[in-house]
Amino acid sequence: MSRTIFLIGPMASGKSAVGAQLARQLGTTMIDTDELVVQEHGTIKEIFAAGGEPAFRAFESEALRQAAAAGDSREATPPLVIASGGGAVLAPHNRELLATGFTVYLYIDAQTVAKRIAGDVVRPLLAGAPDDTTQEPSPLETWQNIFTTRTHIYEGCADLTLDVRTQNPAEIAEAIITAYRDAGH
After folding, report:
1. What global pTM score does this model have?
2. What residue ranges define each of the domains in the chain, with the CATH number in brackets?
3. Which comes out higher in pLDDT, residue 157 or 116?
4. Average pLDDT estimate for 137-153
């Protein structure tokens, strides 16, 4: 029986907010792997500045491994909730970890993300804004490119896919709980 519910999806899909709500509704603990990375290695922006995306991905993988180990060590219900980083699915060994739990893909589209990331300075992959003198993509175009690249990976990892564009975290958490229980957990 799975003792872990993993939340996956692109940045700004609501993994942290949904994870916190899901943990409250289940009466359990939620681990946000991005928060683990920040606690151990500094801000995501600092990590990207010092070591680039490869350094961040290595720290992200380690945080996911630590969080999954905490879920594996649980003997009682309810399950542990883990909100993974948006790029955690890129590494094959992370996908293997996700397969050990009940994995939920939080689907969101570019239009909804545009509302959520307006003025976001915390997400280095979305840093910068184009102007008339540069050919750099806008933060939303960057998000769309990342999303297009990762969509099939998210779908391949998921036991459940939820469209989260119009639901609030409490509604999404309730849908996850229902599906988790219907799956025999």
Report:
1. 0.87
2. 4-178 (3.40.50.300)
3. 157
4. 84
Please state the separation of Cα 106 from the chain's center in Å. 8
Work out the average pLDDT over 38-51.
Answer: 92
128: left (phi over 0), alpha (psi -120 to 50) or beta: left
- Report yes or no: 111 and 167 within 8 Å, Cβ to Cβ: no
Residue 130 has a pLDDT of: 46
What stretches of the chain adopt beta strand conformation (E)? 4-8, 30-32, 80-83, 102-107, 160-163
Q: Give the start-end residues of each E strand in 26-180.
A: 30-32, 80-83, 102-107, 160-163
Which strands sit side by side in the sheet containing 80-83, from one edge to the other? 30-32, 80-83, 4-8, 102-107, 160-163
- Cβ contacts of 68-75, under 8 Å, gap ≥ 24: 68/4, 68/97, 68/100, 68/101, 70/31, 71/3, 71/4, 71/101, 72/3, 72/4, 72/100, 74/3, 74/4
Query: Are 137 and 4 spatial neighbours (Cβ–Cβ below 8 Å)?
Result: no
The identity of residue 83, as a single letter, is A
HSE-up of 71 (CA within 13 Å, CB side)? 29
Nearest Cα neighbor of 167 from 34, 26, 13, 11 is: 13
